[in-house]
């Protein structure tokens, strides 16, 4: 890792990333793409050591409370978070100043901060977003090798349900010819329904590939799925959008299952929910990002 002094922490829509880069090792990670202009090795994590100070300054200056988002580009619970605790420090500030939280992760380390999540959710709204792509843990260990397996993430979702904390599952990406099966999708959806997640977020059934991401993904295909890279090249060429050949059927299956089990699947509605701040003590929905 390397330390930096950031100039700012919140984006225009009140999102933040405390780290830049990742050590989870997911073979499909779009954040490796060269378009993000990362000037250091992806696993050499950039740490914004002054993030808590910047966040407190930003929260104190806001005229209205709102939802604060984190985890969109870099997971807030990377391995070094155990040592540095930047995420926890920022959650403490969000709780202290009465803001809401929309946090996204693949890691069960989020349970370390369950006390803060519960406190935030009592006053306003705390939404935990968990990524699930692969129901089978053995396949998950190949696709997402350095983070807890899917079954553990499902346990996290059930703990959140028991604690009354709403959750959304990002069921993306789904990799053509690898986990784009009815068995995989049904397993994930059944787990989501049992955990009573608020909704399932997808962007179609497939993935995206662009420069930087594509090269790493193909290296991992050669390592774990011999011959699969050639199949991708024959089928998709250099396309950015890589839809599953089973897209139409699986997309319908997702929509129908969500409708039947009461889970939201409309992308616009899910993002609106993530952005909408609630003051539970006043009984009001106040503002968006």
Structure description:
The chain has helices at residues 51-61, 81-84, 86-96, 114-123, 137-143, 150-162, 182-194, 213-224, 228-236, 247-261, 267-275; strands at residues 2-4, 15-16, 19-20, 46-48, 67-70, 100-105, 126-131, 167-170, 199-201, 206-208, 241-243, 278-279, 284-285. It is an alpha/beta fold and 289 residues long. The strands form four sheets. The chain has a six-stranded parallel beta sheet, sandwiched between helices. It has a three-stranded mixed beta sheet with strand order 1-4-3, with no helix packed on it. It has a two-stranded antiparallel sheet with strand order 10-11. It starts with a strand and ends with a strand.
Summarize the structure.
The chain has 289 residues and is of the alpha/beta class. It has eleven helices and 13 strands. β6, α4 (114-123) and β7 (126-131) form a beta-alpha-beta unit.
